[in-house]
């Protein structure tokens, strides 16, 4: 599309198949990208203010409302923050149940993104609807896996969207073993279907794109990171999970309602499945580790974001297999939680949401009420990395016809599985070529 | 009131029943979409509570209530062939406070995003109603029997109250929802008679 003299503008009304509402501006002069900006214009996140004056258990229910896709992640970062701040030790059985709940969220979120949002890009379809017409079995497979995740969350969380059972010190209620049996049977099938998913996406043809990104995730010896672990990076960072703000900071960037995050030295970094596979694959369930090794794509996942769909598929298999193991080993806790007492001061923690590291920090007063909060979602941390990758990737598509170039850029953004509604809903894509 | 509520807190049915799929007695699945913290997005939940209270308890027992942030494809693909479905949600693309009732089958016949002379509600959630419905049609082979009952919203900010047009039109939404539930839960219920602008459904007078 031709704009003002000397400029060419590419635009689409919506970048679909992302969670949230934002716009992308790419300004190109010759072959040089002079500006790449992901602007998030949904209302700012009022949640950091909404929780002020609330008790910790109220906060846990409120922050679950930040996102309909990953409410468990918000609950987990919050509950662990309070427990760390108050010096609360939870029972191993409760910890296992929290991992099981997190497995449920990863399963439904990853299945949704792989099958309904991302796979159409690799198979040449404009939408999951079009893909389902030719590949109904594939879409049914994705929905079956997703249903298993939703069922897990419903059983453990009381409902699949915005669960209500997580409490400081444990849960409001823990399930009887017989209540887990129906989903245990579903998980046998989900493991099989997730294994097929890895094979399926490993066969996709992805665009060439290599860059060395600074990768950040949790890493926990002996297990894949969900609720625990140290914050590590591909360039040697090693922090306790409550000390994110020692090495990272949030900055306001013009044109976006979401704060962006940077390293203390101003650098950008990447979170999420690709970073976790690169930094923490040793903790994968043996079935997932074996499936990843068979693809021989671990290095590609670290350097080409388009392979994030494979990272997500491996994690999907991991979550299904670990969930099955956790149920097999389930011992109902004697009590759903432990008694606790609030302590004034700092309460902070980071956990791994499906899209990456999610940090919460609260300041609590003597009455046990929150007086200040900082919630740093993965998408706002990835936002700068998305812009950086657009800047690096764009020259490779500038010679393509307008529609193809635009689609290639949309695909790149979808590779990050951005959850814009977490960060502050539809992406309005505009690309301008200057000269 | 006996309501099989999958997601709600107000259910007084046993937990196991609340977590199951549509029971054999449930003639209608009511899918209530929205986030009670986001302004006009709370309206579907409010309307559902009031509509169910207004219905004959015998009919309520035949209604399964599913509360969602947004319509999920599985809610439609898992629906037994003989069951009907009512989706209630706030929408954008229509005037704030305007209440619409659209046949799911007729809604599914429209290409997602297509324009016609009729009402064009776009769900406030990530997967629009038309998209979830179209996907369900591909996988089921046909659209579920039932309707979308929607109201135009204007404000969806976190912590915001209902906008004035939506607050004023809430009784109209409750009335429309109750009428559709009563009709579809009754034995031998049929599709709504196609009427209204563009043949897209039955716009119900509301404000805006």
Notes on the protein architecture:
- The complex is a heterodimer of chains A (435) and B (208).
- Chain A is 45% helix and 18% strand.
- Chain A is built from 15 helices and 14 strands.
- In chain A, the strands form five sheets. Chain A has a four-stranded mixed sheet, covered by helices on one side. Chain A has a three-stranded antiparallel sheet with strand order 6-7-8. A three-stranded antiparallel sheet of chain A has the order 11-12-13.
- The radius of gyration of chain A is 21 Å and the shape is globular.
- Chain B has helices at residues 15-19, 43-54, 57-60, 73-77, 104-108, 129-140, 164-185, and strands spanning 4-5, 28-33, 63-68, 84-92, 99-103, 122-123, 145-152, 202-204.
- In chain B, strands 1, 2, 3, 4, 5, 6, 7 and 8 form an eight-stranded mixed sheet that branches.
- Chain B starts with a strand and ends with a strand.
- Classes of the chains: A alpha+beta (435), B alpha/beta (208).
Please outline the helices and strands:
The complex is a heterodimer of chains A (435) and B (208).
Chain A: E1 7-11, E2 22-29, E3 32-40, H1 47-50, H2 56-63, H3 71-86, H4 92-123, H5 128-134, H6 136-157, E4 166-167, E5 170-171, H7 177-202, E6 216-219, E7 230-233, E8 238-239, H8 244-247, E9 248-251, E10 260-263, H9 273-280, H10 286-295, H11 298-303, H12 308-328, E11 345-353, E12 356-364, E13 370-376, H13 378-393, H14 402-414, H15 420-423, E14 427-434
Chain B: E1 4-5, H1 15-19, E2 28-33, H2 43-54, H3 57-60, E3 63-68, H4 73-77, E4 84-92, E5 99-103, H5 104-108, E6 122-123, H6 129-140, E7 145-152, H7 164-185, E8 202-204
Parallel strand pairs in B: 1-3, 2-3, 2-4, 4-7
Antiparallel strand pairs in B: 4-6, 5-7, 5-8
């Amino acid at each position: 599309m031709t704009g003002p003299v000397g400029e060419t503008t590419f635009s689409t009304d919506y970048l679909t198949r992302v969670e949230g509402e934002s716009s992308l501006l790419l300004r190109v002069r010759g072959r040089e990208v002079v500006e790449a900006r992901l602007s998030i214009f949904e209302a700012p996140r009022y949640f950091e203010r909404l929780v002020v004056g609330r008790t910790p258990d109220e906060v846990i229910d409120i922050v679950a409302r930040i996102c309909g896709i990953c409410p468990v992640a918000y609950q987990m970062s919050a509950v662990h923050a309070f427990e760390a701040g108050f010096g609360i030790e939870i029972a191993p059985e409760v910890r296992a149940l929290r991992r099981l709940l997190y497995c449920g969220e990863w399963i439904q979120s990853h299945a949704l993104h792989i099958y309904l949002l991302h796979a159409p890009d690799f198979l040449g379809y404009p939408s999951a609807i079009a893909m389902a017409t030719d590949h109904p079995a594939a879409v049914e497979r994705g929905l079956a896996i997703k249903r298993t995740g939703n069922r897990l969350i419903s059983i453990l969380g009381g409902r699949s969207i915005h669960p209500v059972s997580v409490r400081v010190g444990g849960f409001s209620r823990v399930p009887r073993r017989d209540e887990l049996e129906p989903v245990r049977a579903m998980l046998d099938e989900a493991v099989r279907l997730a294994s097929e998913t890895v094979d399926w996406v490993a066969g996709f043809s992805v665009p060439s794109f290599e860059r060395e990104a600074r990768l950040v995730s949790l890493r926990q010896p002996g297990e894949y990171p969900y609720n625990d672990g140290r914050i590590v990076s591909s360039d040697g960072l090693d922090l306790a999970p409550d000390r994110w703000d020692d090495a990272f900071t949030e900055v306001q960037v013009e044109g976006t309602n979401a704060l962006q995050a940077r390293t203390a030295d101003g650098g950008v970094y990447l979170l999420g499945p690709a970073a976790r596979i690169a930094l923490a694959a040793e903790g994968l369930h043996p079935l997932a580790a074996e499936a990843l090794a068979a693809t021989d794509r671990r290095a590609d996942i670290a350097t080409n974001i388009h392979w994030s769909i494979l990272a997500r598929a491996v994690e999907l298999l991991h979550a299904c297999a670990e969930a099955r193991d956790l149920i097999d080993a389930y011992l109902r806790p004697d009590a759903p939680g432990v008694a606790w007492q609030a302590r004034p001061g700092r309460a902070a923690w980071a956990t791994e949401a499906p899209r990456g590291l999610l940090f919460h920090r609260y300041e609590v007063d003597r009455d046990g009420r929150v007086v200040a909060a900082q919630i740093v979602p993965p998408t706002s941390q990835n936002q700068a990395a998305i812009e950086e990758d657009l800047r690096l990737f764009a020259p490779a598509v500038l010679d393509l016809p307008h529609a193809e170039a635009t689609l290639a850029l949309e695909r790149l953004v979808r590779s990050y599985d951005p959850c814009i509604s977490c960060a502050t809903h539809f992406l309005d894509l505009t690309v301008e070529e200057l000269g | 009131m006996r309501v099989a509520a999958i997601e709600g807190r107000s259910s007084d049915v046993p937990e196991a029943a609340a977590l199951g799929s549509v029971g054999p007695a449930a003639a209608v699945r009511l899918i209530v979409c929205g986030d009670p913290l986001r302004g006009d997005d709370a309206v579907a939940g409010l309307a559902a509570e009031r509509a169910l209270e207004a219905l004959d308890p015998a009919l309520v027992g035949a209604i399964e209530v599913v509360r969602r942030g947004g319509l999920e494809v599985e809610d439609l693909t898992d629906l037994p062939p003989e069951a009907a479905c009512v989706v209630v949600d706030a929408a954008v693309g229509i005037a704030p406070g305007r209440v619409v009732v659209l046949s799911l089958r007729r809604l599914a016949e429209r290409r997602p995003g297509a324009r016609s002379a009729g009402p064009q509600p776009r769900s406030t959630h990530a997967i629009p109603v038309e998209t979830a419905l179209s996907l369900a049609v591909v996988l089921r082979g046909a659209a579920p029997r039932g309707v979308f009952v929607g109201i135009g919203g204007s404000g969806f900010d976190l912590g915001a109250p209902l906008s004035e047009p939506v607050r004023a039109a809430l009784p109209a939404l409750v009335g429309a929802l109750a009428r559709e539930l009563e009709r579809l839960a009754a034995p031998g219920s049929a599709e709504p008679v196609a009427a209204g602008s563009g043949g897209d459904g039955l716009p119900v007078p509301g404000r805006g």
